[in-house]
Amino acid sequence: MSTLLVIAELTGRDLTESTGELVAAAQSVATDGDEIVVAVVSDDPSAAAVSAAGLGGDRVITVQHEALADMGVGGFEAPVATITAISNALSPSVILFSKSDFGTNVGPRVAVRVGGGFAQDCIGLRPGSDGRIAVTRPVYGGNALAEYAFTGDRVQVLTVRQNIFESTSGDTRSPIESLDAPAGVGEIRARLVETVAEESKGVRLEDADIVISGGRGLGGPEPFERLQALADTLGGALGASRAACDAGWIDHSHQVGLTGKSVSPNVYITFGISGASQHMAGCSGSRVIVAVNKDADANIFKDARFGVVGDWEKVFEGFQAAVEDLAVS
Ligand SMILES: Cc1cc2nc3c(=O)[nH]c(=O)nc-3n(C[C@H](O)[C@H](O)[C@H](O)COP(=O)(O)OP(=O)(O)OC[C@H]3O[C@@H](n4cnc5c(N)ncnc54)[C@H](O)[C@@H]3O)c2cc1C
């Protein structure tokens, strides 16, 4: 029997959808007798712990300390020390983080502290031949998928891409236990002084079911307002290529790709994006890609299920009118 430790992902003090996805990821590789434990670390974990108890894990463990406030936006020392202490107490075989800012920063640090192996941005998990977990992750900017096995019996620390696993819910509620925060967790060297909330309306890019993305082919900042309006109508989110962000047409928080955000919506619609490998690295997990580009040889058409060769503005206007008709009828 081994323990699979899921690290709850919070926005403020609320549990995010991706925690349920991590529980689903753990369930996909758990064998009989394995235990799935969800750890909630926060300055006030009570509400998130109640939500986590309904996800179908076996146990929820909470650690409360004022130094764990705002864990998702900075001040990583306290969560690293706390999760390391939880790992030392439970000796898990696997620790799962979400591939978020928090998981990307805290996951590798915890891996070093616990002497574990680390794999970032996993999009597939399966039981390996040696009783350990093998993981699949994109490499070469998303152009290839590689499967990794872990050698030895060190704890496997993973970040799992969001929107790959379907979030779980359990029929019963799992028990909630609390652990003491480790000694010295409040003695942090770097302190988060201020948090400036990113202004965003509507759904988060990473959580959106529909993403509409624009690139350099849009020619300027104004078209992004039109794409945003359409994304709002569809209940989706606005993405962008790095070229468009670098040009200052749209904030970098919208950037999708290798050095931007990873998205896996049901539908990813691009206007004026060439489909460079670094862009595709962030959207190749989309169920359906729709591309609009005036160049029939644009790389994006290799990955697109549906494509239109033509001027983005004309196609956009027709598409927008069709969406508005549907919204009215
Ligand atoms: C280390 C590294 C990391 C990177 N990380 C990222 C990343 O995270 N995200 C990212 O996006 N890029 C990233 N890049 C940059 C990437 O290589 C590309 O340069 C970038 O994605 C190109 O953006 P684009 O498709 O908008 O622009 P372009 O490549 O210039 O393509 C514009 C497209 O618009 C089309 N077009 C032009 N006019 C119209 C029109 N009127 N109607 C329809 N189509 C039109 C053109 O045919 C063309 O295909 C990275 C690069 C490096 C080296």
What does this protein look like?
The protein is of the alpha/beta class and 329 residues long. It has two domains: 3-179, Rossmann fold; 205-328, Rossmann fold (3-Layer(aba) Sandwich), CATH 3.40.50.1220. It is 27% helix and 25% strand. It is built from nine helices and 17 strands. The chain has helices at residues 17-29, 46-52, 77-90, 101-113, 222-233, 242-246, 277-280, 300-303, 312-328; strands spanning 3-7, 10-11, 14-15, 35-42, 59-64, 94-98, 117-122, 124-127, 133-139, 144-148, 156-160, 176-179, 210-214, 237-240, 267-271, 288-293, 306-309. A seven-stranded parallel sheet has the order 7-11-6-1-4-5-12, sandwiched between helices. A five-stranded parallel sheet has the order 14-13-15-16-17. Strands 8-9-10 form a three-stranded antiparallel sheet. A hairpin with a 5-residue loop joins strand 8 and strand 9 (133-139). Helix 3 packs across helix 4. The structure holds flavin-adenine dinucleotide. Residues 215-217, 241-244, 255, 257-260, 272-274, 276, 278-279, 282, 292-295, 298, 311-312 line the site of flavin-adenine dinucleotide.
